[in-house]
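Hi R.,

Here's the chain you asked about this morning:
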Amino acid sequence: MKKLEGRVALITGGAQGIGKKIAQRFISEGANIAVCDIKLHEAQSTAAELSSDGGDVRAYMMNVADDVNVDEAVKKVMNDFGRIDILVNNAGITRDTLMLRMKQEDWNAVLSVNLTGTFNVSRAVVKYMVKARSGRIVNIASVVGVMGNAGQANYSASKAGVIGLTKTMAKEFASRGITVNAIAPGFIQTKMTEHLNEQAKETFLKAIPLNRPGTPEDVSGTALFLASDDASYITGQVVCVDGGMVM
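And here is the predicted structure, written out as tokens:
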């Protein structure tokens, strides 16, 4: 039997990158997927593509920073699927610059999507998991939320906040059979990291003992483990998928 047979997973930022790869991995293990993204056309395209791999895959427009929109989208998912067994909070943005040059709107935007967005979606979904007395929540954090990074004050703070939120949620919902864990990816090859200059990429590689960047597949495998019954006794943890960057 497949590890996620018949389960429903809601994935934010699921139209591309790590979110899309997690969706693909979950589908291969029997899950049905709600692909949620602020870019509805891309979410629809991804859903159509992934549907050929099997399972029921549907697209939803979700602006994670807007709590009203989040509540409406989650209700649509519940109406369509009747349940949400797994939540992957993957949606995230960057607005990198040194702190003294950082505009207030860039600070606010990153915190609103990365941290408040994780809170908004989790709060909307977890009430259904509480009723079911079962659920898996996987939050995508970052190693910079653990160690900090020059030029990413907003992003580092948002991901450190996600880690703190993960641990609090794990304590609050454990009695209801819900596990909450975080993945802290390191330097992963995605569209978000493509814009880095060669010097920045070289600096990252020098800090990675395995001497290579990670791939979305590296993250999706960890997400599958945490979402499956194999991780039923694991909660409140942060798994660094970073080639040894943080030890």
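One quick note: The chain is about 50% helix and 15% strand.

Cheers,
M.
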